[in-house]
Amino acid sequence: MDMTLEVIPLPVTDIDRARDFYRDKLGFHVDIDQEVMPGMRIVQLTPPGSGCSIALGDTIWEMAPGPKPAPGSYQGLQLCVADIEAARAELVERGLDVSEPVRYAPDDGATFMYFKDPDGNGWAVQEYRRRATEPLHRVLAQPAARQQ
Fold it and tell me: Tell me: the pLDDT tens digits for 77-86?
């Protein structure tokens, strides 16, 4: 059985402010911005090139049992880029307050930069240079092709 991670609900205090932040500062595409059922508005945004989206909603947490996460409580969400310096330059140009890249080791995948959304949800951006020549969608298609 195949399973894909496609949507991560993200706790925020103000849907419009969060939508504008992810769209304008990060360049995420707004896939959905509507009331999907009476009293439930969903805004779903996808990073360019990603197969996974984030969902912002004011009553989304009432659909599932369990505790309601507080806005700003998510930490360690991660985006990957092929060139962290180019990504940082674009994000700074968009007005994002993002850290300088930190190189933990010379290996591919060991360089990160960090930022927070307006509610304090923490994100990392990882440089994975291999993605310049091996986009994830192509890597994932290879095992599927071998199974056929």
Answer: 999 999 999 9
Quote the CA–CA distance of 143 and 148 in Å, as a whole number: 9
* Residue linked to tokens 């996460």: 69
- How many CB atoms within 10 Å of residue 49? 13
Quick one: CA torsion of 59, 16, 95, 93, rounded to 10 degrees? Answer: 100
**Secondary structure, 3-state, 13-78:** CCHHHHHHHHHHHCCCEEEEEEEEECCEEEEEEECCCCCCEEEEECCHHHHCCCCCCCCCCCCCEE
Reference 6, options 42, 52, 46, 44; nearest CA is 52
Reported as a single tens digit per residue, the pLDDT across 53-76 is 999 987 787 877 888 899 999 999
| Residue 62 vs residue 117, higher pLDDT | 117
Q: Give the tokens for residue 82.
A: 């092929």
